[in-house]
Amino acid sequence: MGPRAINAVLGSWLFFSTFLWPHTAVQRVTGWIVGLLAVTAALAGMSGRTWGRAANAALGGWLIVSALFVPRLRSATLWNELLVGLGLVLLAMLPRLPVMRHRPGHV
């Protein structure tokens, strides 16, 4: 699975995690919007559009900042948003992973 596909999974997780435990209204809206935009940007990145990677990096940065400065109900939300945000940023920096193919006669 390539970096863009993992970013799509992270965005999906962020969206759906807002339903798993209590969030403030701001955290819930942030999770929904950033999650949906991260999936959209990841899919754009998988189709070769370069803005998808930059968008996911920006969304991850926003998620990290909001996790640190927006009041929260549970520490689980802080850690979830920090880890997802960090994942979005780091994976956005990775180039497309080459497909490893086994060719006869090559080790």
Count the DSSP helices: 4
| Envelope shape | elongated
Multimeric state of these chains? Answer: single chain
Spatial gap, N to C terminus: 22 Å
Biggest sheet: strands, sense, closure? none
Query: Which range best describes the helical content: under 10%, 10-25%, 25-40%, 40-55%, 55-70% or over 70%?
Result: over 70%
Keywords:
107 residues
Can you offer a commentary on this structure?
The chain is mostly helical and 107 residues long. The chain has one domain (3-93). It is 70% helix and 0% strand. It has helices at residues 3-17, 25-46, 51-69, 75-93.
Topology of this structure?
Layout (H helix, E strand, L loop, with lengths): L2 H15 L7 H22 L4 H19 L5 H19 L14
Helix pairs in contact: 1-2, 1-4, 2-3, 3-4
Task: Provide a quick synopsis of the model.
This protein is mainly α and 107 residues long.
